[in-house]
Structure prediction request, 215 residues.
Amino acid sequence: MTAPPTAHEFAERVRELLTGPSPLPIVTAGDPVLRAPAHPYDGQLGDDLLTDLVEAMRETMYAAPGVGLAAPQIGVPLALAVLEDTASVAPEIAVARDRHPLPFRVIINPRYEPVGSGRAAFYEGCLSVPGYQAVTERAHRVRLRCVDQHGGEVDEELYGWPARIVAHETDHLAGVLYLDRAELRSLASTGEYLARWSQPDPRAAALGLGFRAGR
Ligand code: ZN
Prediction:
């Protein structure tokens, strides 16, 4: 066991990142930072540096483009993430996947738990696992508890695609990648996914690739 980085060390790391390239480079699978639990955020950066980091993460998420980005994905092992989904997809996809807009938000020290027994299995990807998608079954509805960027306590339920985004990003902060939960037989390169399996639900992929398409 090594001691957690000091507040000063976190701040130095973030200042260094913010003086580097923009958008920020995204860390990919294989880097241990994606496999270690992030350190709880307890003010290590101070308000101004936190604001600058959040802004840089937001720009990096937009540029990727993605609908969520956790701090370990830019090499910072702190428990915070940014999320936003405009849900600009075809109506039949939005309906089938319960994908509705998730306005921009910052989640700090988040945890989530399933609400009810509803499950949903759809293709999902990750900016840290570029070039692939896999079907991942998750809770349809989750209870999210966290702190927002201004220190406010959050306790709310989300469902559908926003619940999936919250679960995916919160998992990152525990060192968990979506592939740990995915149906690996569904794994598809983005090219094959777009060519064959981008239907609203993964039933055709389940038949074609030989996996169960959830419950
Ligand atoms: Zn991810």
